Fold each of these.
Amino acid sequence: MSIELLAPTTEVAEPPEILAEPRTLAHRELRRDDYWRALPGYAAVDADTFHTHTFQTRHTVTNVRQLSETLGGLAPESFYADVVAGLKRAPMALRISPYLLSLIDWANPYEDPIRTQFMPVASQQVKDHPELRLDSLHEQKDSPVPGLTHRYPDKALFLPLDSCPVYCRFCTRSYAIGGDTETVEKLKFTGRSQRWEDAFAYIESRPELEDIVISGGDTYNLSAGHIQEIGERLLRMPNIRRIRYATKGLAVLPQKILTDHPWVDALTRVVELGRTLHKEVVIHTHFNHPNEVTGVTQDALNRLTERGITVRSQTVLQSGVNDNASTMQLLVRRLSYVNIHPYYVYFHDMVPGVEDLRTTLAAGLKIEKFVRGHTAGFNTPSFVVDTMGGGGKRDAHSYEYYNRESGIAVYTSPGVKPGTFFLYFDPLKALSEAYQLRWQHAGARNEMIQQALAEARRAGR
Ligand SMILES: *Cc1c(COP(=O)(O)O)cnc(C)c1O
Ligand code: SF4
């Protein structure tokens, strides 16, 4: 190597080429056209009406009859039949807001990332991995009182309700959320006020608890009064330092932030009370694709920003939705642009009925490498696997062992459940035919898993 190459350069470097490319600014292009008018059911609806939470909730589509009434001839008959058959085998019922429905590209619904997340089609469903379980995360096993999951030392998950403004196909809580379907009879969170009291009493009785995630269901479906009641109750507990309201609402019905004033005011009062008590109150939301961030999202986030409300987002990595580097980069940039901090990207949980949505660990790890370094570190999400069996979230890169041929990854979680191994399985469709075959035999299956565990034990020594 020549000496000159090592000498410090005095030349001023050109700015990196990529800064000048228009595609690097694509995250700023937020839709503000009247996209809903392309749907026959909404053709006559003006913007002022469409962008209200009352229109959105009143016209939410919950069955295929309403879907075909809204879309008319935009989708072929065969598509509706495909959805009907898909719903028969799905763990989640159909529920989609007019806003989301209008953001779907109806010229190509089979490939559309929003359709893929909210409407099952039988023609794309695949058989479950043999190791899948309902409540794969052991949320019910880690519940000291119904509707409260306490797995980590200082934080707990409070589930005050079991409904949501939409139903996502990939929902981890398909054991509880939404109405019964043909394949899943749901656990019902009944006897609400006593159950809430039990949860509050438990939280107050555990001095180590500082951080409460209020989830569900979805806190968008709590009334203004309940938002305030839960928030104040928790903030007044001396042990509680941080609360987060979890809602998918900003991604599926951002109009509520602009038109449901009592709800936003209630939330603001809780945030202000938190500030007075020197405690943190934030929103955690959930976006999966850049198409879900529009002009109305930006308007809603501007409103929250004016009120000093911090919003973070988590994403679920899904095949055909966001499992490529450029989509994930665009999502992260677009969220950051409207003041949402990308927090997590979850590998798809191992839940039944949505195997077509899962990706391999390898695919997600590769995407992570493209996302990290793309923008500010505090807007760079961690890619995590929420382990089956209650080990909690693990940095996806931190596996003890990963065999890309059998698709088995082994994690440990010494801070949560020391001495236990946790498994993640790649979807079978991504494996070679020989390995797909091995997974069909219980004996071979067990052998592969035991071997992976032995390798992980060896690696850990
Ligand atoms: C995800 C989760 C939390 C919150 O975890 P963070 O990593 O702090 O976001 C708390 N409790 C349970 C049971 C969870 O699954
Ligand atoms: S909004 Fe959240 S809890 Fe509700 S169905 Fe979707 S993923 Fe599940």
Amino acid sequence: MPPPLLPSGARSPTAAPIVLLICSLPVLFLLAYSAYPGGPLLLLGGGGGGSDPSSEGGNNNGNRKEKVAFLFLTNSNLSFAPLWERFFRGYGGLFTVYVHADPAAGVAHPGGVFSGRFIAAEPTQRASPSLISAERRLLAAALDDDPANAFFALVSQYCVPLRSFPFVYRSLLRSGERRRSFIEILAGEPGLSDRYVARGAAAMLPEVPFEEFRVGSQFFVLTRRHASLAAAEQRLWGKFRLPCLEAMRDSCYPEEHYFPTLLSMRDPEGCTGYTLTRVNWTGSSDGHPRTYLLGEVTEELVRQLRTDTGGPGAGGRSYLFARKFSPDCLAPLMDLADSVLFRDPRPGPNSTKCRLDDDDDELCS
Ligand SMILES: *[C@@H]1O[C@H](CO)[C@@H](O)[C@H](O)[C@H]1NC(C)=O
Ligand SMILES: *[C@@H]1O[C@H](CO)[C@@H](O)[C@H](O)[C@H]1NC(C)=O
Ligand SMILES: *[C@@H]1O[C@H](CO)[C@@H](O)[C@H](O)[C@H]1NC(C)=O
């Protein structure tokens, strides 16, 4: 993860989401696929589905259930695999999993829901276009693998869910609202101009004028339409993939700019502008956010991370995921799984949104 653009604390109100949505556009898809440097992206079996892809924002997809694709981007072991396993348990058919693991890292395959879900991967390096490539590879793999994938959530090995699967699912696939991507999009941040000229003063022109240049958390949840756009797009990518000048190394974090800039330019109305993944930049060091340690995992912490009550613009925003947690937090997180993390608030008497579809009203109980 790159260092924060802002001084510590400055981003805390906004930093945090990661969800990706997918809408089925097979043609675009194939394009994205074949246009991708490095050949076939995906070595997955299964997936797919017989029915026609749904259109973005459509609430009625016939009989096929839409899915949330979880895109794990990692360069070390998936220490929280057992927690995710529990998160997913019982909801087969409503999610898919894809893992991009840096091949140099020797990442162990955890089995279970991760079994056979590792996609063809290339080396990744912080603060380089290789992270964008990896994310596009994940998007393309998930788009191509399963037309039912409707949202695409990017997570890392340090991310944990703060809510139950049904809660996450219905938060994303809420009916009766226009679907938007949950991606942080910030303008006017200090340091943004240095980031902009990191490849040379005019390197981004004419495709990306400075006025259009944006920054945001790497962790997003995209709609299928936006996932297709980002996986296939070449014009901006041609710029963001350029190496930074040696002298600008400290301002080179293309992975924090490509997706927010692209979506801000192409479909700002289709984006929330904020992330669903909470991160704590207060007291960050070396550009890394606060990493929660073993002794810090408590019910109180989970509740604090779910809702951001402080800071301008926070406005009680709520989060579905959080980072970063050190690997030894697994045990205390597992202890809190059923009693706190995956325990939903009981739906109110007027709640009608808890049904996943006609077959799944039990998810609401
Ligand atoms: C990754 O997990 C494997 C299997 O559990 C283990 O053997 C290996 O030591 C782990 N690697 C690291 C760096 O912790
Ligand atoms: C964020 O980190 C700061 C500094 O370590 C700490 O005081 C604060 O309690 C943290 N906030 C949350 C929600 O954990
Ligand atoms: C539930 O619905 C009733 C009748 O429409 C309304 O009066 C009440 O305020 C609603 N309660 C909540 C918590 O929204």
